[in-house]
Amino acid sequence: MFLLETAYFLELFKDEIHLLFKVMKLETAYFLELFKDEIHLLFKVMKKIEKVEKKKEKKKK
Fold first, then answer.
1. Does residue 4 surpass a pLDDT of 90?
2. 3-31 average pLDDT score
3. pTM, whole model, 2 decimals?
4. CB contact at 8 A, 10 and 17
5. Helices within the chain (DSSP H only)
6. Percent of the chain with pLDDT over 90
7. 23 near 15, Cβ under 8 Å?
8. How far apart are CA 15 and CA 8, in angstroms?
9. pLDDT tens digits for range 25-52
10. How far, in Å, CA of 61 to CA of 57, rounded?
11. How far apart are CA 36 and CA 44, in angstroms?
C-alpha cells in the first residue's frame, strides 16, 4: 500500500519534482561558478597539506 501511495504521489507531482531538480542544478552551477576561485584555492591548499603530511610520514620511517 505504501508503495502505491508513493508511486501515486510521484506521478502527481512529477512536474514539480522535475522543476525542483532543475532549479537545484542551476543553483549548484551558479554557486560553483561564483566560488570557483575559492574552491580552486581550497583544493590547492589541501594538496599542499597532503604533501607536507607525506613528508612527515617519510621522516618518521
1. no
2. 91
3. 0.50
4. yes
5. 2-12, 14-34, 36-60
6. 72
7. no
8. 13
9. 999 999 999 999 999 999 999 999 999 9
10. 7
11. 12
Q: How far apart are the first and last CA of the chain?
A: 61
Return d(Cα 40, Cα 46) in angstroms, integer: 10
Establish how many alpha carbons lie within 13 A of residue 9's alpha carbon, considering only the half-sphere containing its beta carbon.
6
Q: Please say whether the beta carbons of 16 and 22 come within 8 A.
A: no
Chain CA centroid to CA 37, Å = 16
- Give the separation between CA 10 and CA 4, rounded to whole angstroms: 10
Provide the grid cell at 8. 501515486
How many distinct structural domains can be found in the chain?
A: 1
Domain holding 54, by residue range, is 2-60
* Residue type for position 17: I
